[in-house]
Write a structure and sequence with these properties.
Elements (H helix, E strand, L loop, with lengths): L2 H4 L2 E4 L3 H13 L7 E4 L7 H5 L3 E3 L2 H7 L2 E4 L6 H8 L8 E4 L6 H8 L4 E6 L9 E7 L5 H13 L1 E5 L5 H28 L4 H22 L3 H8 L5 H11 L2 H19 L3
Parallel strand pairs: 1-2, 1-4, 2-3, 4-5, 5-6, 7-8
Antiparallel strand pairs: 6-7
Helix pairs in contact: 5-6, 8-9, 8-12
Amino acid sequence: MSELEKVQLGFIGAGNMAQAMAFGFVKTGLVTADRVMASAPSDKNLVKWQEKGMKTTNVNSEVMKDCNMVFLACKPYQLGDVLAEVKSEVTKDKLLVSVIAGMDIKFIEDNIGKECRVIRVMPSTPCLVLAGVSSYCGNSLVTDLDKQLVELFLSKVGMCFEIQERLMNAAAICCGAVPAFLFSAVDALADGSVMVGMQRDIAIKIAANNLIGAGKMILETGLHPGQLKDNICSPNGATIRGIHALEKGGFRDCLISGIEAGVKRAESMSKD
């Protein structure tokens, strides 16, 4: 039996990020639904898991007991209580994978109170459609096989990068939060298109597909995004007029500030 075939996936916390990852993993065929288990305090967030044939429970320690690769996906302020509840079930054969923004590996190690293998991951919800972006790092007990396993899962639902833990709060925003920024941009672009006469459903599709196309051009051409922008801006044309209006509104400054504000908040979460 391969290492992949031995994996029993657990999710402590069953919200949007956990769903995006778990449902994405199953969609790829890496695991079957019956090898996935999730816990939540109430059944509200577990209905979708049950509909997909996944196991569910209201007891977090049951997930830790029955699974060997356990994703910690609760709210940051809940993590201390969750670890106190499950630590008796943590053994050397368990790989803990935290997807909780702002909470470092040391916090998990200290609250488990014994040696444990911990990998910290910052994913994004587009994992659900196999287009996520994730970063990860691990503690000294994590093996090369552990990393390979995590990379296998994350790369099947998008792309992933191993980084230093000091950059994980930045990754929480650059990976995890940026889709929210882009969803807002698509919504605003659709509003603008409606304002000039486009139908709402068509406007959303145009904006979303332009987002996909622009991303693919950056990745596949290797050209700097500024160069790709310049290639569209004809002298005294409509595009450069639109760019000018965006710059007057502080478009790029707002995006930079959004990243900075998000990272500062991620850094403060462990103190809450």
